[in-house]
Amino acid sequence: MLSKEIQSEVEKGIMLPLMEEFYTIQGEGYHTGTAAYFIRVGGCDVGCHWCDVKESWNADLHPPTHVDEIVAHASLFSETVVVTGGEPLTWDMTALTTRLKAAHRKIHIETSGAYPLSGIWDWICLSPKKTKLPVQQVYDHAHELKMIIHNRHDFIFAEEQAEKVNDQAILFLQPEWSKKEEMTPLIVDYVMKNPKWRVSLQTHKYLNIP
Predict the structure, then answer these.
(1) 125 marked as binding residue
(2) Which of 79, 110, 140, 178 could make an S-S bridge to 84, C-beta 3.0–4.6 Å?
């Protein structure tokens, strides 16, 4: 049970439930292959059945950590910082991103878009989920739309989401890892027939890195 003082700091975004932080190579989407420092924030109620970090869902399992401490760690590594989850927009990202900007970091977010934007972002990767659709604000500001393909119906969902996102967003189809053998050939064929899309792969898993 958090004290009232800590709970207040979490609600303000001064402290965040930090699951993990690590320096690695971005494995997915537009920035694949580039170095980045990842900040994984706990807490998510979107509930994708194929989520590969279900341990992030319960925010209570992850210690509230002051954003100054998080930024101090991030500043030792890459110029680019990726905030992910869980669903990071569950929390107010203003304090974290303001401090990261003061430390001259480029800040990316990976989000389902289920909650309104908070914070300052250089790159927004939107990955919508059927269980809790994005709010319009995130569709309007996303730089990248990354659709996870778990079955054939997900191509229909991907097109529905592409209609909602802004015209400048770069469109990606990515096979869900457990279905990669089945879905990757279908994605390749789909992109060749619909070249507005690009293929994204979880290359970090092939490289056996975080």
Answers:
(1) no
(2) 110
Q: Is 189 a known ligand-binding residue? A: no
Annotated ligand binding at 198? The verdict is no
- Please give the CATH number for the structural domain made up of 4-207: 3.20.20.70
Residue 72 to residue 38: CA distance in whole angstroms: 13
26 is annotated as contributing to ligand binding = yes
The distance of Cα 97 from the centroid of its chain, to the nearest Å, equals 15
To the question of whether residue 88 is assigned a binding role by annotation, the answer is: no
Residue range 186-200, pLDDT digits in tens: 999 999 999 999 999
Residue 175 in marked binding region: no
Domain definitions of the chain by residue range? 4-207
Q: What is the pLDDT of residues 67-94, one digit of tens each?
A: 999 999 999 999 999 999 999 999 999 9
**25 known member of a binding site:** yes
**27 and 202 in contact (C-beta within 8 Å)?**
yes
Strand-pair category, 106-111 with 64-66? unpaired
Closest CA to 143 of 111, 169, 114: 169
pTM above the 0.90 mark?
yes
Model pLDDT for residues 95-152, shown as the tens digit of each residue: 999 999 999 999 999 999 999 999 999 999 999 999 999 999 999 999 999 999 999 9
